[in-house]
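Collaborator request log, item 7. Partner lab (contact: R.S.) asked for a structural prediction of Electron transfer flavoprotein alpha subunit apoprotein to inform their binding assays.
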Amino acid sequence: MAKGIWVFAEQREGQVKKVSFELLSEGRKVADQLGEELCAVLVGKNVSGLTEAISAYGPDKIYVVDNDALENYTTDGYTNAVSDLVKKYEPSALLLGCTVTGRDLSAQVAQRLETGLMTDCTGMEVADGQLVFTRPIYAGKTIVKAACPEARPTMATIRPNTFAAVENAKQAEVISVESGAGDIRQVIKDIIRQVSERPELTEADIIVSGGRGMKGPENFKLLEDLADVVGAAVGASRAAVDAGWVSHSFQVGQTGKTVSPVLYIACGISGAIQHLAGMSSAKCIVAINKDEEANIFKVADYGIVGDLFEVVPILTEELKKVMA
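Returned to partner:
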């Protein structure tokens, strides 16, 4: 009989991704409701040292697959390792973060196991004794709740920042699993890292975002200058992305990334409901918009009614003085 709520603990270069802690925190709640164990799955090379950090978020067990061939993520290697583990222990659910790695791995594992997969989810709950997931469809215009009652394991990818990462330390049982990486068709010749001093959008404490009011791609330099002063990431609304001013990787909202920073500065963003869905959990929201009726002011903690092309440069210069 299938049992256990499993979370794939994604790690890179010795650091567990924040979304993994978020899934463990929420997974603890649903596992308790279903009367099942919460387990983490950790895959890589020399990753045993990460189990203490993972234990802080409440798993009952941590399955560790430590193999030299799994030092770097490859579709084949990780698919083989995770699929073999699932076949052996038969969990009832497997949750992954909706990251580049999570999206790739989940699709391959679901195909290998011939099970269902719900992607890009923004919510999870227990109803009638089973997991039910919330996800946007039709470019974020409609929200649906879906379940795979016959699929075992039930699989889902969940957006970063959907849940809070709340520590709930337990003495987790660490289980080392002897597993090969199997045949790996991909050969990693070199890893070229993007050089940027700005934090990743989904993990940033401060985000400066621009919308239609930016009026063009060249004006995002204003936001970049402000972001560099305060150590922020740069984001954008769907309107700015659809206009071709920035790439989709910058998009915050229902059809972009969900963020939960300490401070969110919205510049020239009207506040469409799809955008608010992706950033409304920010601890503090500052809105800059010349339209005093803009919807963004309804959720903002602080609002500045003014021309962003005047306000942002002044704000940047004043913050430079304060932080010098």
